[in-house]
């Protein structure tokens, strides 16, 4: 029995939500899943996947207008679940495109910026990235060294961003910089003089994903490149909360896929004259994993309903990311033990998921930072300051 069916979770979804989930799952099963292990091994992702996912309608699907589908947060979360069930790198591309790049433009950009970029990004005709993290400032973005200085009617940007998903693919980068007036956001198009990218290689995780460094060396931009509604560090942090929400569901997808791989294997792998699914220790592992997947899904669905009602708080997103990612890593690792030595092969997904989830545990706020965010909410004392 599927872990979600065990707790009758599909009955909590509307017909439209089930249809969207099924559509995304069917597309990924036919067009992406057969290739993802090969992409992971090669450490590469084909650029054409951007247009394919745009055609599917998942890029910025939770945003309104400008070619976006305007779905509910719940539907977007279910799409993220199916995307990460295939690979965290695929879900990460969609999250960065829609919840970081597109959301930053939709929420904080000018009408001209929205008209120029959002329809192309939604269709996958253009790719976006989000430049906040720096080599020395990850968990503490307020200390960023990237600076933007006014020069007449223009701005000049200098600095470096790192661990930027979609970086070298990006036709437009949302770059955050300190100014004399506080943190501001800028749209930096590909080809702008002084703006270069370099892919980060040698990764042991998120290999089916493009990860880059952004270098800004005297990049001159007109004031029209500034996001006019972004006036503090709160702007990029609100974008991160949009992306973290998708992770709450995505982690459930990775765990679900790892469970399914282990359960299928246990039903066919024969030792001591019977399938290993018939042994008590294996059943104990399957039961624990199924409960972890089911409870993670219920938590994700509850948070989605709160978001759709306009009541979701940042600390609740932290609770969802912290719980579901840590739980998903544990499930993926346990699933690998059921597969035995075969579990280290790319023919099976659990160890690939476990490796990817190490990145998911770290980006969009480390597990430690989310634990401190919860501690702050519970005690009123900000321990990280």
Structure characteristics:
385 residues, alpha+beta, Butyryl-Coa Dehydrogenase, subunit A, domain 1, Butyryl-CoA Dehydrogenase, subunit A, domain 2, Butyryl-CoA Dehydrogenase, subunit A, domain 3, 3-stranded mixed beta sheet, 12 helices, 15% strand, globular, Glutaryl-CoA dehydrogenase, AcylCoA_DH/ox_N, oxidoreductase
Q: Overview of this structure, please?
A:
The chain is α+β, with helices and mostly antiparallel strands and 385 residues long. It has three domains: 3-123, Orthogonal Bundle (Butyryl-Coa Dehydrogenase, subunit A, domain 1), CATH 1.10.540; 128-225, Butyryl-CoA Dehydrogenase, subunit A, domain 2, CATH 2.40.110.10; 234-379, Butyryl-CoA Dehydrogenase, subunit A, domain 3. Helices cover 53% and strands 15% of the residues. It contains twelve helices and nine strands. Strands 2-3-7-6 form a four-stranded antiparallel β-sheet, with helices on one face. The protein has a three-stranded mixed β-sheet with strand order 1-4-5, covered by helices on one side. Strands 8-9 form a two-stranded antiparallel ribbon. The longest helix is centred in the middle third of the chain and has 35 residues, at 234-268. The protein is globular, with a radius of gyration of 21 Å. The chain starts with a helix and ends in a 6-residue tail after the last helix.
